[in-house]
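Journal club side-thread
Mid-discussion, someone asked how the predicted structure for our own chain would compare to the paper's figures. Pasting it here so we can look after the session.
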Amino acid sequence: MSFEWGSDKKSYKAIARTKAGREMVKVECRYVGRKPEGELSEPISRDYRQNPTDFYHYKFTNLTDKTITLESVDYRFDKGQYKKIFQQKTKRDIVDYMNSSVLDSKGTLERKNSWVWGKFNPDVLHKIYHAKADGEEFLIDVHLTFKY
């Protein structure tokens, strides 16, 4: 993936490509701040009012004329014991928080108030989506930076 970072060093635009270099999905990730923007759609397992937490909105845009399916997502950090994948979520989980796992041709999917915290300062949570289009697999690596 190629990244274009914003001045806050947390927001960015990126392009996910196939191994052959074909542009598939544009990722737009915007840092929201230390608290969610608007109401949370469901409670989270961290008290962000008392503990440092960063919130983000991100959007995927299908750059192709093919339908793209998000098959699963892996979670890992850059530092510590969670450098290896520590959690995996299914297509059903993706549907639960994005309302779909399908990116129609030129369509979009959004995730609001995605949150991150870490034991290391700074650290980056990677949400690595396994995607498929017309039998071709590729990855979408969403970076959520935690820094306080």
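Post-session note: The radius of gyration is 15 Å.
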